[in-house]
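User: Study the shape:
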Amino acid sequence: MKHVMQISLLTIGSRGDVQPYLALAKGLQQAGHDVRLVTHELFRQFVTEHGVDFAPLAGDPEALLKSDVGQRMMCADSKLKAAREYIKALDPIAIPCAQDALDGCRDAEVLLCASSAYVYGEALGEYLNVPLIHLSIYPLAPSRLQSGPLATPWPSWATKLDLLRGLWLHQKVILDLQALVFRTQTNRFRQEVFGLPPRPRTFGLKTFSKQGHTWLYAYSSQISPRPADWSPRQHVTGWWFQDDAPHWQPPTSLVEFLDNGPPPIYIGFGSMFTPDRERLAGCVIDALRQSGQRGVLAKGWGLLDPKNVPDNCYLLDTAPHDWLFPKMAAIIHHGGAGTTGAGARAGVPNLAVPFAFDQPFWGRALHTAGMAPPPIAAKQLTADKLSTAMRTMIDDANMRRRAAVLGANIRAEDGVQNAVDIIERTLSAISGTNRRPQPVPIPG
C-alpha cells in the first residue's frame, strides 16, 4: 500500500511563482497525499478555492513591485543594482518569512521548495531533517550546452570555443554571485530562526550532481530542450498548468468583442509594474492601429490601463489563459515562465516583451523554437517595432505552422503527472521517509 505523505510546498513571488505549484499540489492531492501550499497571504483565496491547504508567508509581492524600492529594482541598469534593491526590499521580512515558513512546514514529512525560496528550503531541510526536492520554473543547473536564464547570453563564437567550460562556468558564476549577495541576510535567519551554521560562500553546485538533490523543472523540452550534460536527477517534466476555464464564465462584453471581428492579439504583462506604463500602453495601442489588428489588453497589476481605449481594443480585467489564448491570433506577454507555457500551448505565435528576471531567456527560447519573432525588451519597445512584430506573427505562415505543431506537442504532455510520478519514485528510494527524526530545538 502506498504511503500517504504529509507534503509542504514552499514558494515566494508573484502569481506566476504560485500558479504552477498550485497545479502540482492538486496533482499530489489527487494521488492521495496531504499537501499544504506555503506562500504569501495575497494568494490565500486563490489557493483555498482550489481545495488546497494554505499557510501564509510574510510579504506582499504586489506592494513590493509597486513600491519605490521595487521600481528601482525593475528600472536598474544592471543585475547587481537590481539585486541590491531586492535585498533592501526583502530585508525587513527575511526573518518573519523564515518563521512563517517553519510554521507552515513544521509537520511535513516531505518538503518541496521552489527555486525562488531556495535558501529557505535549504535551511528547512537541514533543520527538519526531511527529504527535500527542489522545483523550478526555469533551468538552473549549469550546462556547457545552454546559457542560464539569469545570465547574459554568450556570443556564438564564444559558445563554440567553450573557453574554460564557457556556458557552464558562466552559470556557476551567476549562482555563486547570488549566494554571495544574499549571504548576510540568509545567515541571519539561519542563525536566529533555525540555529544553523552559516551556509557556504558559494551556491554549492553539488546540489545539481548525481549525488545531490532531485530537481523538477516545470516547463517543456519542446521550448527549452533538456541539456544532455545534466545529471539524471535533473528532470524536465513539462509545464504544470492550472486550468480554470471549466469553472469560469466570460463577461458578455468579452464574448461579443471576440464574435464581432477576426481573432485579436492578446497583450498583457502580468505582474509587471513600472513608472513607464503610460508610454507602454501608448505603444501597444499605436502598434495595433499601425498593423490593423484588434487587441485584448490585459490590465495585470496595472501596467496596461490606458485612459482612452479605442474601439479595436478590449480592456480585460482577468480571464483564464487556457480559455482565452486559443481564441487569439497571436500573444504578446512579458515572458514569464507560466505565461510562456500557456501561450506556447495555445499553438499560436508568441512574442515576449521582457522586463527582468528570467523573461529574456524565455523570449529567446520562443524565438529559437520558431514560434516567435525576437524578443523586444520593454525599455526598448516602440510602436514601430511592435507593429512589425505583430505583422510577422500574423503573416508568417511558417511561424504559424511551427507554433501549431509545438502547441499540439505541449498539449499532449502531462507535466503534473510526470512530476508526481518522479516525486513518488524519488521518495520510495529514500529510506526512512515514513518516519522522520524530530528536529533539534531552536536555541534560546
Notes: Residues 432-444 have pLDDT under 50 and may be disordered.
